[in-house]
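Sequence and structure are kept together here, with a separate record for every protein. An example record follows, reproduced without changes.
>
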Amino acid sequence: MTAQKKTKLYSGSRKTARATAAFFPGNGKVRVNNVPVEMMTPWVARDRIMTPLQIAGDFRDKVDIDVRVQGGGVIGQAEATAIAVSKGLVEYFKSKDLRHRIAEFDKHLLSGDPRQTEPKKFGGPGSRRRKQKSYR
């Protein structure tokens, strides 16, 4: 009989992107949609995903993380992934020091950011702008 790995799932979302991070005991491998995080492009998104991993320091080397992310754009997916990884690291290791370090860097990595785009309305090209009126 094979020994089962201890798996924990954590989720994060930003705009319309949703990410689910699975944590396994391991040696620090991080994959996003089956791609190693070091190989991801663009570099801005990669840096955003790496932020909680760099803050975590030694904790990162104790777990392998598999992230599945879908919906939204590139940066929204990167933000959702960073939130899922941050929440997962804090809950998996139950470390108040790690929670404090992440919250001090960016509080939205633990709580999320509820803002959504406002829907377009009639009478103009966007959600707020309207056609100009002239009375002369």
Summary: Residues 8-111 form a domain with the Ribosomal Protein S5; domain 2 fold (CATH 3.30.230.10). The chain is about 35% helix and 20% strand. The CA atoms of residues 90 and 96 lie 8 Å apart.
